[in-house]
Specification:
This protein is an all-alpha fold. The chain is built from 5 helices and no strands.
Length: about 130
């Protein structure tokens, strides 16, 4: 890690910082409360833009009006993941956080992103015959 990266990490939390903290938590290492709170803030601060990106992809997939069960299931999963991510962010905004909350928040982020990627992939691989309007 360069001196610039160390200084930058002091002022901002990146996804890599969150992943490193999760690794410490899972290994049972001691973690500092400030690091936990910074990781939670990362999730809370990124939740709105992640949710907006997911809604945009889901809207594009829905415009294709594909009647493929895999596409519909992936869209439902994406919408559920966004609800879970937003609920986590709202709950954590006003509370002090525990190490488990960091893991839960990051898992919510990854599940939301994976579900929208799944929806997009299912739409791309779906037959090109659109559903009846």
């Amino acid at each position: 890690m360069s001196w610039f990266t160390e200084i930058e990490s002091f002022f901002t939390t990146t996804e890599a910082d969150v992943v490193a903290l999760i690794a410490k938590i899972k290994s049972g290492a001691q973690v500092v409360e400030n690091d936990i709170n910074a990781a939670i803030r990362w999730v809370v601060n990124n939740a709105p833009s992640i949710a907006a990106d997911i809604h945009e992809v889901v809207a594009l997939v829905q415009q294709l009006n594909i009647s493929n069960p895999a596409v519909q299931a992936a869209i439902a999963d994406a919408n559920t993941a966004v609800v879970a991510l937003n609920a986590f962010a709202a709950a954590e905004q006003s509370q002090t956080s525990a190490p488990a909350a960091v893991v839960n928040g990051y898992v919510a982020v990854k599940q939301a992103l994976a579900s929208v990627n799944s929806a997009a992939a299912a739409a791309v691989s779906a037959p090109t015959t659109p559903a009846a309007a």
